[in-house]
Amino acid sequence: MSFFPSRRLRRLRKNEKIRDLVQEIRLSPKDLICPIFVQEDLKKRTVVESMPDIERLPLNEIVKEVESIVDLKIPAIMLFGIPAAKDDAGTSAFADNGIVQKAISEIRKNFGKKIVIMADVCLCQYTTSGHCGLVKENKIDNDSSIATLAKIAVSQAQSGVDVVSPSAMMDGQVFAIRQSLDDTGFSDVAIMSHSAKHRSAFYSPFRDMADCAPKFEDRRTYQVPFTNPMESLREVEMDINEGVDIVMIKPALAYLDLIAETKRRFNVPVSAYSVSGEYALVKGAAKQGWINENDVVSEILYSIKRAGADMIVTYFAKAGAKILQD
Ligand code: PBG
Q1: pLDDT means over runs of 10, the chain (326 residues)
Q2: With a threshold of 0.85, does the pTM exceed it?
Q3: Atom of ligand 1 nearest to the CA of 167
Q4: How many domains in the chain?
């Protein structure tokens, strides 16, 4: 005779239907945001070894790619550009005929309201230094950088973007972008900031993909140290005060505590960016046959949602949407 004969949690696990009924966290393709890399002057789709199954796309493949994403019922894409030329001022990032600007107009023209177009706002792919801000006397200069980030955001807005997503981790970037968008008649363009973007070793495959590794030193003078959770939350708070619409915690899996804390403390939509290194870990282990890829992907995406993310930027968006539809 047990002490508490009526306490049996296994009753609600007895078959699939009853498990469905009591499922607490639901994940659907509608929670996902699919990154896309588009490269200027590229002739055909190109693979990058450290990010298996993710390709750099030429502009003329964009419509086909977005179509496959729309078909999977994924509501949003996140565009990253790889320009043909870099310079000190990162001018190709805000050129009217820049690669991201062209991709945005092309997608807008073909898909109208069928997809939310988000675009990365940063400088590292576009500057010779590979840094996310402009360099002055060997330092990353905050205030000239945010002026340029605001120009990038406005040029994307002119091309038809829905959401700009600054990832440079410059102080005041959200304020500068919000002000410029409002001043130029784009008060309806939203900002999803990489609010607490940590200085992380999980970004290296992305740097292969986007060709944006810093040419001197690293990003620790602007990205948040992973040892400082209160500082991460201060970053989130600052972005909210500057008028951000959606905050982001990045990376995701090693930062679930911060996703949870952000959701608890603040009354704004929270996104999580499951970054390239997280993707590479799973792909690498799966390739060896050491884990079941689909099961692990599902468990990881659910864990990010369970932590409190309202949406997830993930390289598993398409694969995840297929798993979730089955
Ligand atoms: C840079 C940027 C990075 C990522 C997104 N934007 C790399 C970095 O900060 O070095 C990383 C994303 C990923 O790893 O998937 N603006």
Answers
A1: 76 97 98 98 97 98 98 98 98 98 98 98 98 97 98 98 98 98 98 98 97 96 98 98 98 98 98 98 98 98 98 98 91
A2: yes
A3: 16
A4: 1
